Every structure is written in C-alpha cells, then in structure tokens.
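Quick question, first post here. What does this chain look like in 3D?
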Amino acid sequence: MKFIIGNWKMNGSRASLRDMIQKTEKIKTENRVVLCVPFTMLGETSDVISFGAQDVSSHERGAYTGEVSAAMIAETGAKYVIVGHSERRMYHDETNDIVREKAARALDNGLIPIICVGETMDEKRAGKTMDVITAAVRESIPNDVKDKIIVAYEPRWAIGAGITPSTDDIAHAHRVIADNLSYMGLDGTPILYGASVNAGNVADIISIENVGGVLVGGASLKPDEFIPIIQNVK
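> Answer (accepted):
Ran it through. Tokens below.
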C-alpha cells in the first residue's frame, strides 16, 4: 500500500472539499488517500479519503490563544496530522525539538503524525543535505513510535518552485532516511516524497526505492489534477 496525501495549505473551502469527495467517491484504489485540510474543513467523511490536519499544538491544553490541540483534531474524526512542514519550519521557526513535541502530542491522542524533513537551497549548496536530513530524522521523532508514524522528505528548495530533484537525488535522500529509521528500530516506516508532485511525474517517483508514497501540494486542490495522481500510483 502506498500513501497519497494532499496538503491544501491555506486554500479551499468546505464547498470545494465536498466537490472533491463527491468526484472521488467511485475511485477504486488499494492505496491510502488522505487530505490534510485547514482546521475549519475537518469533520467531513468519505469512503475513499481519510482526513488530517496541517499542524497541531505542542501543548495539551491551556491559555494558548489560536492554537488547536491534538485532542480537538481527533474529535473531528481526523486520523493524521502534518508536523514540521517546511513552511512551519521556515515561517514559524519550528525546530526539530518543537516538531518532536507536536508529534508526541499527536501520538498521545491516536493521530498519525506525518513528520516532514528536508534541506534548504543554502544547505544543499553547502553539501549539508544528508547531515540535515539525518539530524531531522533523529531529533524530530519521539520515542516508542513503531508502526505509528509517517516520514515525508521535502526538499525545501523545490517546494512551490515547479522543480523536481533527479531520481538519484530522491533515491539517495530516501536511502539516508531509511537507514536512519532502521538504526532507530523503525524499519518499515513509510517514507513519502513531497515537492512538485503531479500526475505526470508521480509514477516515476513512486517507483523509486524506499518511496512509500507522495505528499502533494497544489495538485491536490482540484479533482481533475488529484484524481489522475491517485490513478497513476500503482
């Protein structure tokens, strides 16, 4: 089974989500399809799509205006939550330690965290890609999480830029992640690839060793773009 996870970011509406649900209801797939949508859209149901949030508070409860706890997310029926997305790390200065705390809160409440790791363009140019990935995997994953997490590799320099790394680049990064997960006793953890995924490149990406699925951005917003991705993942 592969994972096809869409991240709507700060886009969409309840009407557009219902349209997506209606247009995907007859799709047959053995893979797991997930949409991570804004908090206001959680609570919808679908026979084909599972749902997740795009972030979660590192706190269980309390005076943290504007934050949403893992328990609140779980109460909507959502099963997944993205933590440590590149935009959270970039715009909100989230560190590996913060990401680990958020992942732990998710796990405490029965959610599956999708833990994102990846390098910036400056880190790539400095030859630090593998060091950055290794540190993120080792430091962002809580203890005692076997079979309960997903890891997503996001080359941060490619997100939103329409750039897809070479097959060798993706394979190398996923091998490093897989090796680190194995060292941590987490063999078999799904490792997703996320950056500029579309219907035209998803089949090639999914065929790369250690790629257990994809994390899709803009192409997950429209049924006529997202459905072909689902269909092209074998």
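The CA atoms of residues 4 and 230 lie 7 Å apart.
The beta strands are 3-7, 32-36, 49-53, 80-83, 112-117, 150-153, 191-193, 213-216.
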